[in-house]
Write a structure and sequence with these properties.
Largest sheet of chain A: 7 strands, mixed
Shape of chain A: globular
Order of helices and strands of chain B: EEEEEEEEEEE
Largest interface: A-B, 25 and 23 residues
Number of helices of chain A: 0
Distance between the termini of chain B: 41 Å
Distance between the termini of chain A: 36 Å
Radius of gyration of chain A: 13 Å
Radius of gyration of chain B: 13 Å
Oligomer: heterodimer
Number of strands of chain B: 11
Order of helices and strands of chain A: EEEEEEEEEEE
Shape of chain B: globular
């Protein structure tokens, strides 16, 4: 089992470009999350999903959109990238309240 | 909203014991979690306290006191591989709110 995977691992964008980050899980978890992590800070929740077809805003949702068309996939979109979106993005899944399982991360640089 | 405070850095020698404190402000939560993150890696779950008291998992223990809005992670018999960042996080409605993290450096 792969657990939680993220695609791509690293990307460089120019300001104004768009891209989609893919998170895939084979753990059959209902809950999926997108976080960003910046130097010296903890992880901040961007958007999350409590099941297939649902999405909800987290702490820092501006500039991002998400979709959960299939239970195993959670997509994070940047419609018009800005340098402030340079960060490391982590996807996570959970089957219950206690534990979240994180993917390896995507490093995004916006020039 | 929720806020969590933890020390930014801790340094200790191999074999020592380290306690990472976490104080929080919140209107309500289900539990307090701890995650470990090695440099360049993904956060991994260490421990969860839903109730007040001590939870022990091998060399790591975690404690929660709801009345004091306080918790801690205790790392015993420190090893070089324990050098990492440690995050406390409040759990509420299946969402996590993280502290800024404590970088633990273990010296030989």
């Amino acid at each position: 089992n792969a657990g939680v995977t993220q695609t791509p691992k690293f990307r460089v964008l120019k300001t104004g470009q768009s891209m989609t980050l893919l998170c895939a899980q084979d753990m059959n978890h209902e809950y999926m999350y997108w976080y960003r992590q910046d130097p010296g800070m903890g992880l901040r929740l961007i958007h999350y999903s409590v099941g297939e077809g649902t999405t909800a805003k987290g702490e820092v949702p501006d500039g991002y959109n998400v979709s959960r068309l299939k239970k195993q996939n959670f997509l994070l979109g940047l419609e018009s990238a800005a340098p402030s979106q340079t960060s490391v993005y982590f996807c996570a899944t959970a089957g219950g309240e206690e534990t979240q399982y994180f993917g390896p991360g995507t490093r995004l640089l916006v020039l | 909203g929720q806020s969590l405070e933890q020390p930014s850095e801790v340094t200790a020698v191999e074999g020592a014991i380290v306690q990472i404190n976490c104080t929080y402000q919140t209107s309500g939560f289900y539990g307090l979690s701890w995650y470990q993150q090695h440099d360049g890696g993904a956060p991994t779950f260490l421990s969860y306290n839903a109730l007040d008291g001590l939870e022990e998992t091998g060399r790591f223990s975690s404690f929660l006191s709801r009345s004091d809005s306080y918790g801690y992670l205790l790392l015993q018999e420190l090893q070089m591989k324990d050098s990492a960042s440690y995050f406390c996080a409040l759990t509420n409605d299946y969402k996590l709110s993280f502290g800024a993290g404590t970088t633990v450096t273990v010296r030989a």
